[in-house]
Amino acid sequence: MSGPQPNRPSDTALAAAAGRELATFSRVLYERGWMPGTSGNLSRRGDGARRDVALITASGLAKGELTADDMVAVHAETGVGLRPGAPRPSAETVIHAAIYQATDAAAVIHVHSPHATAVACRYADRGRPGTLPLERFELLKGLGLADPSRAEVPVFPNWPQVARIADEVAEFLKGADRPPPGLLIADHGITVWGASLAQARDRLECFEAIAQLITLGVPPAGGPAPRSSPALTAPTFPGPARAAAPTSRNGHRHDQHD
Ligand SMILES: CSC[C@@H](O)[C@@H](O)C(=O)COP(=O)(O)O
Ligand SMILES: [Zn+2]
């Protein structure tokens, strides 16, 4: 994004390219089922001299059908629209702005992916922000953490006033020492950031895959999963090389070690 401050992203070739990139990522995430209805929003911050500007998806549109003209230029760190009368920016622009203000992020993605949303519902500390500790998961290495063995993922209440969520996000990020690049909103979804849309998307995939394991019964932290967890009972495969393991009356398989 260079040249005069864009009123619409199509005002400059670079802004149009950024708008197309946002539309492409949005369509792919929509097609995964992570942006049902008109949910979800994406933004990308300008480079260099254009760092004060971010392009964000317009509010209330089907996120699988966006074009570059459906992106709105806002002030990156306040979320204030740069052109009155332009399409309305995402209702959650202030959350993106809080992240741009407190981190080095150049892209932010918010989706309602099912597993992250389920985990956000289950681990919410009702009425106040909390954190969900994550340990052990190999995919923590995909989050760019200083210490990939552990992350404390914040979980925020889904206040009806988005500005209140944004204030709590800003407060958390201000006080956190190298926080993970993602946050959960109870009963709502997940927001993830990175140095590019591709990096934010990769991190989002890692968060969602970890959340899927948690919804399958893997404890988020604190040692290995209990052997008795029904969702984690190992499948048995028939074959001549190994006799079937004896089974106790409660149906649990006794492992044989040879
Ligand atoms: C389909 S309602 C979902 C919205 O309330 C919101 O959570 C959301 O993700 C999309 O808001 P938007 O203003 O379109 O960016
Ligand atoms: Zn949302």
Automatic annotation (TrEMBL):
Top class in the EC scheme: lyase
Annotated segments matching region Disordered: 221-258
Pfam family, one: Aldolase_II
Pathway field: Amino-acid biosynthesis; L-methionine biosynthesis via salvage pathway; L-methionine from S-methyl-5-thio-alpha-D-ribose 1-phosphate: step 2/6
Tagged with keyword Protease: no
Enzyme Commission identifier(s): 4.2.1.109
GO MF entries: methylthioribulose 1-phosphate dehydratase activity
Boundaries of every Class II aldolase/adducin N-terminal domain copy: 20-215
InterPro entries the record matches: Aldolase_class_II_sugar_metab, Aldolase_II/adducin_N, Aldolase_II/adducin_N_sf, MethylthioRu-1-P_deHdtase_MtnB
Keywords: Amino-acid biosynthesis, Lyase, Metal-binding, Methionine biosynthesis, Zinc
Cofactor note: Binds 1 zinc ion per subunit.
Annotated family: Belongs to the aldolase class II family. MtnB subfamily.
NCBIfam families, alphabetized: salvage_mtnB (TIGR03328)
Protein role: Catalyzes the dehydration of methylthioribulose-1-phosphate (MTRu-1-P) into 2,3-diketo-5-methylthiopentyl-1-phosphate (DK-MTP-1-P).
Full protein name: Methylthioribulose-1-phosphate dehydratase
